[in-house]
Specification:
- With 109 residues, the chain is mainly alpha-helical.
- Helix 2 packs across helix 3 and helix 2 crosses helix 4.
């Protein structure tokens, strides 16, 4: 799954908001909810690894938009079946633990 986070670009193009401070002021003015400046900076400058639903609702309510305006989620297509990398997990049980090091000639590359 691929996530494209473009909040900074969206704010600049659609709302002429250039800084986290400006966005924070708009959030407080429109919703009455105070959000920390650090949280706003993190949302603008990089894709968050996790985000609370309440925060997403707050931003979308403030900007009068839907989430897909600045966050696009697409499925990543898998490529052709590739051979598995050699590791303990995909080593045949018959080859495990017979010697300290497996013989490379026993594996197909």
């Amino acid at each position: 799954m691929t996530i494209k986070w473009s909040l900074k670009k969206y704010l600049l193009e659609k709302h002429s908001i250039r800084s986290a401070t400006d966005l924070r002021k708009v959030v407080i003015k429109k919703t009455g909810v105070t959000i920390s400046l650090q949280n706003v900076c993190n949302l603008i400058n990089k894709r968050p690894s996790s985000i609370r639903l309440e925060t997403m609702e707050l931003i979308c309510t403030t900007l009068n938009c839907k989430l897909e305006a600045f966050c696009q989620i697409s499925t990543k297509k898998k490529g052709p079946n590739r051979p598995k990398k050699l590791s303990y997990k995909n080593t045949p049980h018959s080859k495990r633990g017979l010697s300290q090091f497996p013989d490379p000639e026993d594996y197909q590359f």
